[in-house]
Write a structure and sequence with these properties.
The protein is of the alpha+beta class. The chain has 11 helices and 15 strands. It has a 7-stranded mixed sheet with strand order 1-12-7-2-3-4-13, with helices on both faces. The longest helix has 19 residues, at 111-129.
Amino acid sequence: MPLLVLVALVCAGGAWLYVSAGRQLQHVAALGDYPGRPPAGKGTNWLLVGTDSRTALTPEQRAELHVGNNQVQNTDTIMVLHSGENGPTLVSLPRDSYVPIPGHGSRKINEAYADGGPQLLTRTVEQATGLRIDRYAEVNFLGFVRVVDALDGVRLCLDAPLKDEKSGADFPAGCQVMNGAEALAFVRARYADPEGDLGRVKRQRQLLGAVADEMTAPSVFLDPGRLRRVLDASLAALVVDDGADVGRLLDMGWSMKQIAGGGGTATTVPVNRPGVMISGVGSVLPWDENGARQLFQALRHDERIPTSDSK
């Protein structure tokens, strides 16, 4: 899940962790040039990805996490984090977004990863948004669960009960502490949500704020042992592009902290209407072309984005 990029906040807990964090960082070739690539704009754009990889999971873990045995690796979470002079902006791209995938026709955006890994996903996002992606960060199911568990859970408040058999979510209304497996079920639930994928991206951002609160709590920063456990779990879960280093993660982590604290903007790319059926593709979310164009044009020029949902 994208909230794992908040490992940067942990790194800020002490200079003595900086060098160790650098040694543990895992890299992947996620960015590449190609004809027609969008030019660099103002500010910095991160692509934050949560994958549904099951390859590292035992059969018991798959059953516990309600993730099934599908070996096709897609992306459950896709977000663009823009940082610039007008403060940070986090934009969710729903996994069912119907966009052109270079070389594969128009399909759901989450299939780009399965078709060509991080580079094709990055190119797909660049071509769909007109934004050049500068940095990339990715985490998978198991890594996400281990980080939340290293934090001894996170506190989430629900306005209404949430029950989804496919994800394993079964939570009453009200505030509660969720462990890693429960938090994963919370963010993956969508079939019982009347908003479907749009509801899920809102829960992803809610969980992001909860993890930010926990990672910045004195109970983590004032406990060197716990701080190190959280750092180790986070870095083991995180994969970044070849050019990313701890310094860039610190910058990005600060932007994420601002958003979680209400100092930035969090939104979802405008869509026409949910549940559009496309033959051979299924239920998709086509973007509102005018709304999406205005949003991404504002980010490209580092301007304030049009008014939209902020939760």
